Amino acid sequence: MDTQILAAVVEADLGAARAQMALSLGWHIIVACLGVGMPAITLIAEWRGHRTGSPEYQRLAWRWAKAMGVLFAVGAVSGTILSFEMGLLWPGLMGIYGEVIGLPFAMEGIAFFIEAIFLGIYLYTWDRLPPVPHMLSGVPVVVAGVASAFFVVTANAWMQQPVGFDVSNDRIVAVDPWAAMFNPATPPQTVHMILAAFMVAGFLMASVYAVALLRGRNDRYHRLGFLIPFTVAAVITPIQIGVGDWAAHFVAENQPAKLAAMEGVFDTGRGVPLHLGGVVVDDEMRYSLNIPNGLSLLAHWDPNAEITGLEEFPEEDRPPVNVVHWSFQLMVGIGFALLGLAVWQAVAWWRFRTLPRSPWFLRAAALSGVASVLALESGWVVTEVGRQPWIVYGVLRTSEAVNPAPGLVYGFVVVSVVYVVLTVATVYVMRRLARDGPESVAPQERDVTDHRAT
Amino acid sequence: MPLPEITLAVLWLGLTAYVLFGGADFGGGAWDLLAGGAERGSRQRALVEHSIGPVWEANHVWLIFVIVLAWTGLPSVFAAVASTLYIPLTLVALGIIARGAAFAFRKASTELWQKRLFGATFAFSSVVTPFFLGAVAGAIASGRVPPGIAEGDLFTSWINPTSLISGALAVGTAAYLAAVYLIRDAQRFGAADLAEAFRRRAAATGAIVGVLSAAGLLVLRADAPRLFAELTSGAALPFLLLSVAFGIISLLLLVWGRFYLTVRATAALAVVGLLWGWGVAQYPWLLPGVSLEDAAATGTVLAASLAALAVGALLLLPSLWLLYAISQRADEQSGNGGSTGAST
Ligand code: HDD
Ligand code: HEM
Ligand code: HEM
């Protein structure tokens, strides 16, 4: 009896640790996407403003730079929590494999530094430098942001495809850190993630202006504020779908249990259909719409290819199926919906040189930001939950990596409360920033002057 | 020097930078807390905000640098420390979130009640966070973190005499450094009265930190005799003496009331002496029974990471110089007109 209670407590702590990791990562990733995508979009606006001399571009660039200042701070602190949590929650992972994934994180640290430094310079020299040097000071921010996304995702890719090390007696005896960093999962995952960051940033920013346009503020400022980020995101969407297909092929080759979970396939076979929708009950996919031979075709470019079903894996080696299946459906569905939106705009632009007239376009565009975030989160759920029960695929189980200290549940509760408060405050402050009337002073200058005067 | 030693030295350099720069940013928050009511404290708060605004994020990255280098270079030690001390470290993490976010939000908000709310969060977490960081340092210094995962006591490992005194010392040091740095910033800001106020505060906190350090030594004697012996007789002694000497010089300069740029250096050196004294005294033992050699990662990892950091440093140093130069020059410019700005 006692051991049963104990086991339940340990189980609860493991659940709490996972939930806490998922919450902190899922939160950070949204801000991180803005941190990767926004500087580039802002620079585009600033550059257009410089070329055309039109004040709307300049005001937009300034407004976005100001928001970036706040978001970067939030991104930095939420990222710091993550690096703590790697140790606090998963000492069994870090104590052994910390050195294997250390190299990309060390490089990521440098990238963060560069990003923080040049963002500081970019914001503080807003009207102290001539336009061209000022824009140049923003370029390292863009490069470092993309680089940090690349580095951190290589670490995650290693957890999917662990290579580049030798273990004996629970101790690492040899490491090839470059091989670990450039593991087979790295190319598709990093490209897919970086494109996702630009999509999320673009659609989220565009959503804000779509709402304003819907409310009748149909002036040049708001139209441009919509068009620049929307165009960036729209151009990337079709490429992202292609890269997603690459990622799926990769999973099919290298993580058969994950692919089977994504598609809810239990029986190994040839010519396996693609399941749309449906739920898994008692190890069987029900109520799904089946496209004959679809999965074999998509995963291996061969309608007769063999797909390994979950039956091949012992019960304790299977990831949860419904979560992974539905997350995958959601990501793909949203990807195609966003593609539709992008095509709609492209056609209208090509034929009339304007936005589509229909208010439904703006309504859909107003939702595109939230939708792209949902795609992003569900993509990560596919990747991370689909990897279960392994924290390092095939090498280390999540349950062996978790901190065995009691009380993780309380930590999770406290951290959740903090994140709720942080979310409310961030949304509130961003809304304030969006609502303030257009201004003409440099972002940081004004804060300081204001503060002095109060 | 062999790779593990170089790695440890680089890690300690990062820690030093974090204490000197990041620590001062925390201290700025402490002075924000003590600045008084919204009316009376507003100029002081403006000064603090102005001084740390452009640099705190860059300063903050030093902490991430230390954490990442710890798990890369000393994975098992990192895991032992993080798992045993997960309660104070979680509190540190929450403090960092509250502080950074509130600081950014306060800047972006316009209404008084919001500024108050975010300001109070920023200031309060600025005091609490270094305390827990200090307590963690005390836990390691007094040998209360055994090797292995979550092997230490979850509470007494960080609630003990050494941890309490080092926590207090961390808060005091942060406030001291901040006050010292702020004197010069206030001068440049054209606010002579604030400079004078921070001079007095710097002298007072300096004295308090001195007393705390002495008390800390006594506590160590009872609580961590080995570390105490190393500090007072071994290779660490020169560092300790250096720290004491620079501490006294700083106090004299402060009381005398001049050379504020020099005080910045001497005050920093006093803190550096303490930090490196601890490091040298503890070396080569990281945890009880675990030496650097036992814990260090494999050579290829250390070599690759150090090489990456060296290349990174080539990019970073000029960038950092540019950031500090630009923010100081901007001050100089606004400082001329600032005498009116600062006294409104
Ligand atoms: C805007 C976001 C977005 C959109 C529209 C898509 N994805 Fe995605 N997807 C991600 C954002 C994302 C992600 C969040 O960025 C993930 C998680 C891990 C990763 O590398 O990328 C991801 C992971 C991910 C994986 C798992 C990779 C792994 O486990 O290693 C697959 C198979 C796909 N995606 C496939 C697709 C397909 C076929 C899409 C076509 C519509 C698609 N994604 C659209
Ligand atoms: C380099 C990047 C990442 C690393 C190193 C990483 C690491 C981890 C670790 C250590 C865990 C806990 C073990 C587990 O339950 O699998 C985990 C779980 C998880 N991560 Fe990641 N992660 C990364 C990126 C992300 C991102 C960006 C997300 C965004 C949403 C994410 C979503 C999740 C989720 C949902 C879980 C929980 C899995 C479960 O409940 O079973 N991960 N990740
Ligand atoms: C795929 C997932 C991730 C991406 C794309 C990503 C990207 C970023 C970016 C762009 C920033 C800069 C801050 C900003 O612009 O808002 C950032 C900050 C940070 N991230 Fe992440 N991150 C990811 C996951 C993680 C994980 C798993 C960790 C730690 C284990 C982490 C640790 C950090 C840290 C420490 C910072 C703060 C750096 C600073 O102070 O500037 N991130 N991240």
Number of helices of chain B: 13
DSSP strand count of chain B:
2
Q: Order the strands across the largest sheet of chain A as they lie in space.
A: 1-2
- Main interface by residue count: A-B, 81 and 79 residues
> Given the helix and strand composition of chain B, which structural class is it?
mainly alpha
Would you write up a description of this structure?
The complex is a heterodimer of chains A (454) and B (344). Chain A has a domain at 1-175 and 184-191 and 405-454. Chain A has 15 helices and ten strands. Chain A has helices at residues 2-52, 55-89, 91-97, 102-124, 131-160, 177-181, 186-214, 220-254, 256-263, 294-300, 321-352, 359-385, 398-401, 408-435, 443-453; strands spanning 165-168, 171-175, 269-270, 274-276, 279-281, 284-286, 289-291, 306-307, 390-392, 396-397. In chain B, 84% of the residues lie in helices and 1% in strands. Chain B has helices spanning 3-33, 38-52, 56-73, 75-84, 86-108, 112-141, 161-189, 192-223, 225-233, 237-256, 260-282, 292-295, 299-343; strands spanning 285-287, 290-291. In chain B, helix 3 packs antiparallel against helix 13. The chains are: A mainly alpha (454), B mainly alpha (344). Chains A and B meet through helix 2, helix 3, helix 4, strand 2 and helix 14 of A and helix 2, helix 3, helix 4, helix 5 and helix 6 of B. CIS-heme D hydroxychlorin gamma-spirolactone binds next to helix 7, helix 8, helix 11 and helix 12 of chain A.
